[in-house]
Fold this sequence. Notes:
The chain is an alpha+beta fold. 48% of the residues lie in helices and 16% in strands. Strands 1, 2, 3, 4 and 5 form a 5-stranded antiparallel β-sheet that branches.
Amino acid sequence: MPALLAALRDARNGITHMGWGRPSDECRGLLAAGVAYIDSLLPELAKEPEWFWENHYDVCKGLVEKTTDELKLRYAAKIRRAQATFAKKTGSLSASEKTAVVASLSAAPLPSRWLLHIPAQCPACESPAFISGRDKSGDYGDIWFFPRYFGCRVCELALTGPELDLAEMKAHSLRTEEEVDDDWEPDFD
């Protein structure tokens, strides 16, 4: 157990020192991410955040809440801007013209450094769009998709990082229901 606690404290210290010499808004986001990361590890150690953070618990809790609130406000503003862009592009079109414009604009994913693209529906304009990210092999042959970027050509919405979580674009298995073998059991021999 002491080795696990030492690793946890090292993670906290490493994350804290990464903010050295950076602008305060970047530091706040970095520290909030570090606090949230460490808080997610504490249940594995059967420890509560109050125990780990000691006198700094209220500051850490407030930092995460403030950063989360700011992120939600920025996300809502992005959605509103994208909806306004969509209205400007399609507001004067007939239903059939609108359908044709949406189909042509949404046909290809936006360029992204992530090569894997998964179809998705845009949270702002509800047009077809793409989430790009990476894949990773999981246990028992599963392939998992980890979203890293969302882009919609129709309303020009782009999301990254925690914004993807707010849009409910989370990691998921790429295995389809048809591929599931209910009789399969792992071979532990």
